[in-house]
Recover the amino acids of this structure.
DNA sequence: CAGCAATGTGAACCCGGGTTAACCTATTCT
DNA sequence: AGAATAGGTTAACCCGGGTTCACATTGCTG
């Protein structure tokens, strides 16, 4: 219930969706995560949203559009969250980095569906959207990289990119594994691990 | 070329594949990684393997069977590599852990295709195989967890599982990002990061 | 040489699931 | 009220791509 509420609030956030539309997005998100995009039929989505079959087309132009909406929501959240923390130019880089990681771990764990869809189902989209969204994600990554380089100027660009990529990606497998831990424990551990990766010192060999 | 050779040697390893069969596996692996399983047609696979279309069915019972063969190859490699290192009961847990991480990082980076397919395209398989393979992977994970718990008895089972899951999953996003670094640099950095995660100390909050 | 197994090919098949069509019921607006 | 609009329903469509068919060709083997 907590998960759904969380996702629901996120979907509601952008006010441009009607109530049925939101129900569809909610249902689709759950199904996409459970069975995957390809194995989820339009009829399934409709059924899970209380209507049946082609009625979905009154709200979305097609199946891909639903996936696209979810992925864009996810990317949007990522961008906004990052921006919000980077905008606070009071903190020093170290603090910002910690805040960023904290926010990322928490929001991902509290709302795993969007994260999992974003990671796993980009392939379901037309290549054009795929590229656009990938570019946006890379852009966010570069902001993290920039921040990390401020905090640790001794790192090479490549080293920073590897670290950030790992960090942004290490949450997903944990979510996918559905370990038994509660939200709090999971995010605490993840945060600590992410910071460890960002602060690790490499001895060249 | 290095990548293909590497994968080729892996495929050749199990001697049960004929030359054409191997060519098909090789071609399919590349295509699956590039475009994804669903967007790769049987005709594409055939063409990439030098034959065209339905000739593939002389070697495999169907498209899924190709994917299955690749995924099983990948799981097999994972199990064997893990076993090989765990079998050496001379080393202390710390050393074994380090060796495990080293092997995993290196082999994943040197041969990204199998890793990426394993992570991304499990959904293409029938649920039965999906479950079986997931179970096998979880089993390997539990061996890592056991080793980690030997090395750090103060950890809870959950904490160890979170750490191991992160560690095993953090390689994939780096591979998928296709960062500019060479094989050596990538695996060195990844190894250091993985060890950092395994050795991080959690302060309870 | 006859025969048969192995391997290819292009054409045909076919079917699941996304989409569209045709039609029905509210509710709202003039 | 009458019309337009929003939102649903079931039945039909249809098409892409995995699979199957019918038919070469080659190479062994008896």
């Amino acid at each position: 219930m907590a998960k759904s509420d969380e996702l629901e609030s996120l979907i509601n956030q952008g006010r441009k969706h009607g109530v049925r539309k939101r129900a569809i997005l909610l249902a689709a998100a759950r199904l996409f995560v459970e069975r995957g995009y390809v194995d989820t039929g339009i009829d399934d989505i409709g059924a899970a949203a209380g209507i049946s079959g082609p009625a979905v087309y009154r709200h979305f132009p097609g199946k891909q559009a639903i996936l696209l909406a979810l992925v864009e929501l996810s990317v949007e959240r990522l961008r906004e969250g990052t921006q919000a923390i980077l905008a606070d130019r009071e903190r020093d880089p170290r603090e910002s980095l910690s805040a960023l990681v904290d926010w990322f771990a928490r929001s991902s764990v509290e709302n795993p569906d969007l994260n999992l869809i974003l990671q796993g189902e980009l392939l379901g989209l037309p290549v054009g959207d795929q590229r656009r969204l990938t570019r946006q994600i890379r852009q966010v990554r570069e902001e993290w990289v920039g921040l990390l380089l401020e905090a640790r100027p001794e790192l090479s660009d490549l080293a920073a990119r590897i670290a950030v990529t790992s960090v942004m990606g290490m949450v997903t497998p944990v979510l996918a594994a559905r370990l038994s831990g509660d939200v709090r424990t999971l995010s605490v551990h993840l945060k600590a691990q992410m910071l460890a990766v960002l602060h690790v010192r490499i001895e060249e060999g």
